[in-house]
User: Which sequence fits this backbone?
């Protein structure tokens, strides 16, 4: 049973944006509802008006535009999982989609919803952070692109204004010889919120050294974070055990670990260490394979 | 605030164009159920359990998570669309449904429609899925009964059926040992040794040569209720809607401990559509205990329906009845309660410490051992010569083990509908395991006599002990009395966590003395049991914990000391395993620890000491069920064979020898593989019913066509007990199972039964059914003889057993009752003549010596024979993160003769799944104020389909002389051994012992770190 609210059912994106503007700040967009509906039921959020954006055609596409992979914010996690384009140019995101909740929720939950909900443990965020993704925030009559790293402010808080809606996500097609992977540790296999999640992207140069790298963590701070210090360590280096060790230590330092029902702070730090180290070790193995192949 | 307004939506529902009028706030789940699509079930409302799954445009979706208005213009599919109504036989069903019914994939049936729809979507997309793909696809729909083993097999079978491939009848495999095959060959042939599931493996039943084969008993009969459950037929408590029905809702305490200074319910009562608001001021203060147990229930009676004090977050404060559930919840928010918040205590040690907050300071509760220290019971018992046995001990081991608070998480929440019938009697339709106890317990609380109350148990969506409690019935009935209207109450999932019951957390201090010859000579158990805010089941659970925790190794000196204490946490109650599973964790782990420390072979050490055939259970007399018990002697014991088969099937000694755990820890340098594997084992013994206390009865009545009605008070809560009781009757009456129509249970029409708890239905109720069937069969034989003019020998009537004996005079007829066979629906005489049961029925009802062939019988046993079992688990431990993955479980079971191998193995698999949760992830966690931090099926982890290891079940049959056809219980046993077997396997993998469940990754990691 849900508390009372008015549910508006726009048929087009402009109509939806008009409605958000008209009822702000009492209106919220409703996408798959997999987070919002339990929040409504539990009284955690009490909007007077919900604007249903689920299924709007303008938010349902995955494609390539120039140097970018672009997708509408209404794309479901199941769509992400099935997309060949994302498989080719955003494997890290597909890995997150594969372990996202469970198949039923993946059918409903949208990328835009997962970003907008701004949970510190949101599974799509670390992958999109290492892809240097940007979000399109649209309101009636205008729109802007913002970097994902600048998007989050705090737990469940973003720079998205009440009249704005996340309408699209894009990232530059990564250069060839790019490795990107996602891992999370949960207390069980499916439908589990991460204790820690880690995403890593490594791009190799001609020499076999790392020319660009990105490391992002989820569930270790009020928002998912990039670990730039670790990236600095990796850039320009071969992925030796010593380099991996130094980068991993920065990841652990960056994790301002919090204790909660899922884990203590000390264990979070430990898991950050293990997952980061393992992903970088995997990157190193991959880089050796690349070297041998070339 | 904008106003709600109903809207019309158009959709394709099960292939038909439909329009529905819906409120925009209605979820699709609510709208579908309101439109009588009741196969779609409420389980959580948060998208965690999946019971509400429907297909939207072909994709499985949680209908509780979307608003009905969103499906305007879409296609929605429910299980009602799969088969025509009524589905009467398997052929009427869709192949996925029939596969579920045939394979035993349905236990309670509450999640079945959701599983079937999820399977349908998968098989549409992928007609030939791998087992992993099936597991993954099903991972969004929780099942608490089956352990998913047979659900996965059902999907595989359905896939084959839909691909038009032939399938064999789904039945168990049978073998006789010693026989024409060696054990090794048998296991190899069944592909049991590899532990690698190449094809669906059904349970294996091994019999001793002397065990006679029966006709219906022992066969893998499909469940008698499988078809209706596969079809999603409205069969559960909440699937009916009474005219004028109101909806009840419960206001619960936000504080762990507080006195209610005042309640102002005026505003709530004034709300339009609210028919009643009841607080402690409106209901007579009658003391009771909510646990459904035989009369007189164990004290203390420390509860009242509504109190002026609250003792845990989630405790009862007030109830409302209103025209809609939404209105009832709104009214709750308008009730103003002025609380005087009191200091609270959450920890059991602190609760009995010095100067604690006193949780039960009321004057009218009798029978609390020491209320000032929150100690509700102190139990002490000892057998044997203490000094002598401790003197014999060469080594003494002391260890402490801790178990956590587990929630039952049956997918159907507690639900109840009460109403006045046309005779002014109160009818209680409720999801209960104990209909007769509920009627007896309700009467004084309502000021009615028992004859004025009728309790009906419809189909139950799982209980596991939580429905052995009166949770909603009294409140719902009070609302019907207050309003004169039918009232329905149903818990939300959140309320299930905070306001139902749970497993008693324990602290166990074991002290064991052993000799150099591996003999266990003395065992002392000091137990602290945490019963939460109220003492229901507190005495009996903890007595059972003592008795069962001191039985398996039956030391010459055994001693038990126990405090059961109150804390300001949600109340603990009955839960499958009932104390025994907690102390099995302690004693089995300690036995493994001792063997490891002494360098002994763990199997040999346990074998030397486990209880043997013919031995007395040392603690059975001292520790009964809340009172002194009865002497118990082991009359059947398959433990040795269980272990022999299990060792062979797991290649135990080869795997165990791979050990090298010295180097397992601190593996971060990359030199040592962080993943380590281990194998572990545990033994278990349980009981079958409560000796000398709990009675069951059954009535069998013949119909015109020679079929029978079997009336039982036994409460099938999804276990399949209706089916096995029908098999027992069918065996005795010589008919097929579908000629037995089972009714369970209705206090007006079915005879008394204690209810479904204490592993008693097969053993106690089964014996009652068998006795009734024997009596009915004798009457059938007599009437058949009369029809053919066969004169019977006047000796003692073998069937009636009424003690009378006629003197034999004149020529002695050669035919006795025992010479007349009932078989294949006919009565066969020694001379070859036959009369069909239909002829006998018509004759006895209409033509000759007219009378109703009917018989009733009761059964009470002074024995509670233990079923035995052994579990073998293989685990992988990630030594860097502490994550434990169970990769295989094999359980060998001595449940006496197995009445139905498919339903019995379903009990084993389901028990193991719950045991895995207890061992690895399930735990109710509180903040400092006593608020539960994980009252959702998301953060509270119940095993899902994609996490389950392969499970194999092998029954090693014995013949229990006191059981029906030699049967013992099976329901609780499998949960007892999971945690200690995993603890042993983790030790085998890593060299560390875990002494507190659940073994979460963090606990394992900390234990590994502490060792370095």
Assistant:
């Amino acid at each position: 049973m849900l508390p009372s609210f008015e549910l508006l059912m726009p048929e087009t994106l402009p109509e939806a944006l008009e409605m958000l503007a008209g009822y702000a700040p009492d209106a919220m967009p409703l996408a798959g509802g997999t987070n919002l509906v339990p929040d409504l039921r539990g009284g955690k959020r009490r909007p007077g008006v919900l604007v249903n954006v689920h299924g709007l055609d303008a938010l349902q596409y995955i494609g390539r535009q120039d140097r970018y992979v672009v997708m509408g914010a209404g794309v479901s996690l199941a769509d992400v999982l099935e997309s060949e384009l994302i498989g080719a140019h955003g494997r890290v995101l597909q890995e997150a989609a594969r372990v996202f909740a469970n198949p039923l929720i993946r059918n409903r939950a949208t990328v835009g919803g997962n970003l907008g909900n701004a949970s510190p443990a949101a599974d799509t965020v670390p992958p999109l952070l290492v892809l240097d993704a940007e979000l399109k925030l649209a309101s009636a009559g205008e729109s802007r692109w913002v970097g994902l790293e600048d998007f989050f402010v705090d737990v469940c808080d973003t720079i998205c204004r009440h009249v704005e809606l996340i309408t699209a996500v894009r990232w530059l097609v990564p250069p060839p010889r790019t490795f990107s992977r996602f891992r999370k540790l949960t207390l069980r296999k499916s439908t589990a919120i991460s204790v820690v999640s880690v995403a890593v992207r490594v791009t190799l140069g001609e020499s076999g050294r790392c020319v660009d790298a990105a490391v992002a963590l989820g569930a270790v701070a009020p928002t998912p974070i990039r670990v730039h210090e670790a990236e600095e360590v990796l850039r320009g280096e071969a992925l030796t055990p010593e380099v991996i060790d130094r980068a991993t230590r920065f990841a652990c330092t960056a994790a301002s670990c919090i204790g909660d029902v899922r884990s203590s702070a000390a264990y979070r730090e430990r898991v950050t260490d293990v997952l980061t180290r393992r992903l970088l070790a995997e990157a190193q193995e991959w880089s050796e394979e690349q070297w041998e192949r070339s | 605030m904008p106003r709600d307004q109903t809207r019309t939506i158009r959709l394709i529902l099960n292939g038909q164009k439909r329009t529905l009028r819906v409120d925009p706030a209605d979820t699709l789940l609510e709208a579908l159920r309101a439109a009588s699509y009741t196969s779609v079930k409420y389980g959580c409302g948060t998208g965690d359990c999946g019971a509400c799954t429907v297909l939207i445009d072909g994709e499985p979706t949680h209908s509780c998570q979307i608003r009905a208005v969103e499906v305007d213009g879409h296609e929605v599919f429910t299980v009602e669309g799969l088969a025509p109504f009524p589905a009467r036989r398997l052929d009427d069903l869709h192949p996925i449904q029939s596969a579920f019914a045939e394979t035993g994939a349905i236990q309670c049936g509450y999640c079945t429609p959701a599983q079937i729809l999820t399977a349908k979507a998968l098989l549409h997309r992928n007609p030939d899925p791998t087992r992993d793909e099936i597991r993954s696809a099903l991972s969004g729909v929780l099942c608490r009964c089956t352990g998913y083993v047979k659900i996965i097999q059902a999907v595989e079978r359905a896939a084959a059926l839909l691909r038009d491939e032939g399938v064999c009848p789904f039945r168990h495999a049978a073998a006789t040992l010693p026989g024409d095959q060696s054990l090794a060959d048998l296991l190899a042939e069944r592909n049991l040794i590899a532990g690698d599931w190449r094809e669906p493996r059904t349970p294996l039943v091994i019999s001793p040569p002397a065990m006679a084969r029966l006709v219906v008993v022992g066969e893998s009969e499909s469940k008698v209720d499988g078809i209706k459950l596969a079809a999603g037929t409205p069969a559960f408590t909440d699937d009916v809607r009474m005219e004028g029905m109101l909806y009840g809702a419960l206001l619960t305490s936000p504080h762990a401990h507080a006195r209610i200074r005042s309640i102002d319910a005026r505003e709530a009562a004034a709300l339009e559509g609210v028919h009643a608001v009841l607080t402690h001021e409106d209901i007579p203060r009658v003391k009771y205990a909510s646990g459904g147990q035989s009369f007189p229930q164990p004290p203390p009676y420390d509860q009242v329906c509504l109190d002026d004090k609250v003792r845990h977050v989630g405790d009862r404060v007030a109830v409302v009845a209103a025209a809609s559930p939404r209105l009832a919840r709104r009214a709750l928010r308008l009730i103003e309660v002025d609380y005087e918040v009191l200091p609270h205590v959450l920890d059991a040690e602190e609760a009995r410490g010095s100067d604690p907050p006193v949780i039960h300071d009321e004057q009218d509760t009798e029978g609390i051992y020491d209320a000032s220290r929150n100690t509700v019971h102190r139990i002490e018992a000892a057998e044997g010569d203490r000094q002598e046995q401790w003197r014999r001990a060469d080594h003494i081991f002391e260890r402490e083990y801790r178990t956590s608070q587990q929630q039952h998480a049956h997918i159907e929440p507690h639900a109840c509908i009460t109403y006045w019938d046309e005779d002014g009697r109160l009818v209680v339709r409720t999801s209960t395991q104990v209909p007769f106890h509920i009627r007896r317990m309700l009467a004084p609380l309502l000021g009615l006599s028992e004859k004025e109350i009728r309790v009906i148990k419809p189909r139950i969506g799982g209980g596991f002990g939580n429905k052995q409690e009166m949770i909603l019935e009294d409140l719902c009935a009070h609302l019907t009395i207050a309003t004169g209207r039918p009232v329905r109450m149903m818990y939300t999932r959140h309320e299930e966590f905070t306001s139902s019951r749970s497993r008693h957390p324990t602290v166990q201090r074991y002290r064991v003395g052993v000799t150099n010859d591996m003999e266990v000579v003395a065992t002392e158990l000091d137990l602290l049991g945490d019963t939460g805010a109220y003492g229901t089941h507190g005495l009996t659970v903890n007595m059972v914990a003592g008795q069962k925790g001191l039985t398996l190794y039956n030391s010459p000196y055994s001693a038990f000391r126990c405090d059961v204490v109150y804390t300001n946490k949600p109340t603990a109650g009955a839960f499958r395993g009932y104390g025994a599973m907690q102390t099995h964790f302690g004693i089995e782990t300690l036995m493994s620890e001792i063997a490891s420390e002494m360098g002994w072979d763990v199997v040999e050490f346990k074998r030397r000491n486990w209880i043997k055939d013919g031995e007395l259970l040392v603690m059975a007399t001292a520790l009964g069920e809340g009172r002194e018990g009865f002497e118990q002697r082991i009359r059947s014991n398959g433990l040795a064979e269980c272990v022999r088969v299990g060792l062979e099937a797991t290649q135990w000694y080869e795997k165990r020898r791979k050990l090298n755990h010295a180097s397992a820890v601190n593996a971060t340098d990359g030199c040592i593989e962080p993943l380590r594997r281990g194998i572990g084992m545990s033994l278990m013994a349980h009981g079958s019913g409560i000796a000398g206390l709990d009675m069951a009865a059954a009535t069998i009545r013949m119909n015109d066509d020679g079929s029978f009605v079997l009336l039982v008070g036994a409460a099938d809560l999804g276990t399949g007990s209706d089916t096995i009781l029908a098999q027992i009757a069918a065996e005795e009456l010589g008919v097929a199972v579908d000629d037995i129509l089972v009714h369970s249970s209705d206090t007006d029409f079915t005879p008394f039964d204690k209810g479904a708890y204490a592993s008693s239905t097969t053993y106690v109720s089964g014996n009652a059914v068998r006795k009734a069937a024997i009596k009915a069969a004798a009457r059938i034989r007599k009437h058949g003889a009369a029809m053919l003019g066969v004169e019977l020998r006047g000796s003692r009537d073998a069937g009636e057993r009424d003690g009378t004996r006629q003197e034999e005079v004149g020529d002695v007829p050669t035919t006795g009752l025992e010479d007349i066979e009932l078989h294949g629906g006919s009565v066969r005489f020694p001379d070859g003549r036959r009369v069909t049961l239909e002829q006998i029925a018509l004759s006895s009802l209409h033509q000759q010596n007219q009378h109703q062939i009917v018989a009733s019988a009761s059964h009470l046993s002074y024995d509670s024979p233990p079923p035995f079992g052994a579990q073998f688990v293989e685990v992988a431990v990630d030594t860097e993160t502490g994550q434990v993955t169970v990769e295989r479980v094999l359980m060998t079971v001595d449940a006496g003769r197995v009445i139905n191998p498919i339903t019995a193995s379903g009990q084993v698999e389901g028990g193991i799944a719950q045991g895995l949760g207890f061992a690895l992830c399930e735990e109710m966690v509180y903040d400092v104020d006593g608020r539960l931090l994980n009252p959702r099926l998301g953060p509270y982890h119940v095993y899902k389909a994609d996490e389950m290891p392969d499970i194999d079940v092998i029954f090693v049959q014995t013949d229990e002389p006191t059981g029906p056809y030699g049967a013992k219980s099976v329901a609780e046993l499998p949960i007892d051994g999971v945690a200690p077997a995993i603890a042993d396997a983790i030790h085998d993998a890593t060299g560390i012992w875990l002494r507190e469940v659940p073994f979460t990754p963090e606990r394992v990691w900390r234990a590994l770190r502490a060792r370095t």
Remarks:
- Confidence is low (pLDDT under 50) at residues 660-672, 795-809 of chain B.
- DSSP finds 26 helices and 33 strands in chain B.
